[in-house]
PadR family transcriptional regulator (Methylobacterium aquaticum), 582 residues
Amino acid sequence: MPIDALRRIRRFNRAVTAEVGALDTSFLGRGRPLGAARVLNAIGHGRGEVGSIRDYLGLDSGLLSRLLRGLEEEGLVVTLPHPADARRRVAALTEAGRQEFAAYEALSNDRAAALLARCPKGDELLRAMDLVATALGRERITVEETDPRSEAALHCLTAYYAELGRRLATGFDVSLSRDPEAADMMRPRGAFLVALSDGLPIGCVGLKGKGLEVAEIKRLWVCPSARGLGLARRLMERAEAAARDLGITTLRLDTNSALPEALHLYRRTGWVEIARFNDDPYPDHFFEKRL
Amino acid sequence: MPIDALRRIRRFNRAVTAEVGALDTSFLGRGRPLGAARVLNAIGHGRGEVGSIRDYLGLDSGLLSRLLRGLEEEGLVVTLPHPADARRRVAALTEAGRQEFAAYEALSNDRAAALLARCPKGDELLRAMDLVATALGRERITVEETDPRSEAALHCLTAYYAELGRRLATGFDVSLSRDPEAADMMRPRGAFLVALSDGLPIGCVGLKGKGLEVAEIKRLWVCPSARGLGLARRLMERAEAAARDLGITTLRLDTNSALPEALHLYRRTGWVEIARFNDDPYPDHFFEKRL
DNA sequence: CGGATTTCCTGACTTAAGTCAGAAATATGC
DNA sequence: GCATATTTCTGACTTAAGTCAGGAAATCCG
């Protein structure tokens, strides 16, 4: 371990502590202690159930109760019993609460925008931040099944097509490729999985089925800042699990030799190369795996 | 301003807050509140004067006084009047204090090492962290005059020679170049300046004089993660100021066309190209500036 | 149904952090 | 020398945050 690396990480910690501290201070400007503001923001971000707020913010049950009473007295929040289990309670923002939440969001966005504006190399900075955030938030990466037309899915697919366009010598035009109908990548025929890191989509994979025992893997992509963390493998495992769940026994996929990481992954994880099985113009390698 | 950029910055904030919070929690493990631990560490890092601790940590005068009394009662710190002004006081660690400080340093280093160990792309991560830390800590970059044989100076010079080796088609061997004697880059003949970002050296420039009215600028270098922030210009301005201070009226420098950023900077800041003035094998462009 | 469990709540605490006024010691400028 | 300013300190506060024990309501399970 080079001693220099430790100094660099610690410098990073200092720089970033100052930035985060400044954000906290700006949150104080709305005349409410930080604890209450954090609860309000958790609710605004869709965390309604009291138990889940407690877990997320790591608060004591009694403390959270009191903070919620405070927000109720301010008229920002109402709590109702959970419809399915009346012991639990669900908090929701009132109209005034939504406005207050929006004000916090605006503060947060302003700070982010100011940070970017005062740095001349914004794009490079953003890429570096993505890399750091993904590496630090590695344990918090979740893989979720979504509609392939959802915002998160489209974000990944757009990036995937753009990358293919850059990496294939021929360029890439979606319309020429066999673009699976969305319904083929949703239950009950297939599935579409997105990897999320703190809500930001950073990878995807599609399982395209026709209701038969054979299905295809499509659109495996991992955001550059998240490569090297084993995420592609994790996505593939989840896709295979979904396939088994749907009663599929054989998986196929096509790929291109311009994507050597992908070829390497498939060869290492039980896929065997087979003959061409479609007339799509882009792929030049074809694989199969029996589940 | 792309909306996506804000989401990315905010994700970064969240990821990093969790990391920093974990470090704070680990500091709590030594049975001392965070406030006292921060004061102890500030003193350990060489911040002796009470006033400077107050500024650095942003503490109220009364609060800091109490924290210092607490550390004194623990036997970790002694305070003495400042030799030049007995109103001010200077805090110093006792032997027990030094041990306790070392324990905090170890905790901090352990966390940094653990972070690096659990991330498979350590080197890329470090570079990204450098970039973020430099961008965020931009206002805190200081330029200081040092001995050209100091640790910080050598760090920069080593990186500078390595980069020349990569960028010059011929490679680079210091011994073939006219390596200025250290004394030529120190008062009263010259100066050596280092840019520090939170203590980490990220750039340098040397002013090499012979006691005459003409002197040379040597070894201008900025760390890759800090480029694009105008640091080279700032270093040059400081070097020119030092030259004026030493009564120097004409500056010269040599450089190579493999370093186009440097050529561009010189041309924009009042340097005029002149004929070759030495027989150093590496440079192919020569500049002069009258102060 | 009835005891055990879960979920949230209240009340009574503790601790850390921060604020503010003014006192004491020392330095500075005329 | 003396008024004024600076630096640190003490004491008396406030506020935020967190802990813990126990209670009420709802649910679960035999």
Q: What stands out?
A: Chain A touches chain B through 52 residues (CB under 8 Å). Chain A has two domains: 3-118, 140-290. Strands of chain A lie at 77-82, 85-93, 141-145, 191-197, 200-209, 214-222, 250-255, 272-273, 285-290. Residues 115 and 122 of chain A are 9 Å apart (CA to CA).
